[in-house]
Fold:
Amino acid sequence: MPRLVAMLLLGVFSATMTISAFAAEEVVAAPSGGRTEVISFQPAVPKAPAREGSCWTSSIALARAGAWRCMIGNGIEDPCFTTPEVPNAVICGANPATSAAGFLVKLTKPLPPPDAHLPSPPSPWIVQLAIGQGQVPGPYAMPPPKTYCSGMTGTLAIVDGQPVPFSCWEAHVESQPKLGDTQFGLLDDFTPGKVWTVTEVTFAIDPKPAPNQPPFKLMGKKTIALEKVWE
Structure:
């Protein structure tokens, strides 16, 4: 092979290797409808017995007008939603991922002034991960489980130096992670568009963390697409 041709081929090969090494990860699965469905959630007035309570600040879980952080008895509900159908009341406990209707809370105090620094557009509250449609066909094929993630309102896990503000779970699965179990969540780097994307991280509890380091070990990180976004 002529030396010039060999050098050109080597250059192309080296460039290809460099691009492959630093290329962004591809989205693992596209939404079933070809685009992410974005929903501004507004619960219907529930039929459950009404309770009494008060709200003292805007929601931490959902930074949106009309969403509040409220106290009912000794418990905190977040978010609770104002409803035009019932004055001086909010709806708490409603959740589109679990289909929970929630309950009406009659306010014992007026609502406070809303937060003046709400983002525009609103940040996600709950998201459903895209799982793709390339499942194994056949009469015994099981539909893949739906996976949801929601914003945390308490202490956040710090993984590889980054907070993980969204925790994830599979529908109809209610189990607490055990020591050493692999957990996963989302970073707060949502990219809106026809198909929303975000970074998913998997991590495990490190039984022997380094001094002054968080007790979590990064197991993996990838870009994923979202099926639905509730704001």
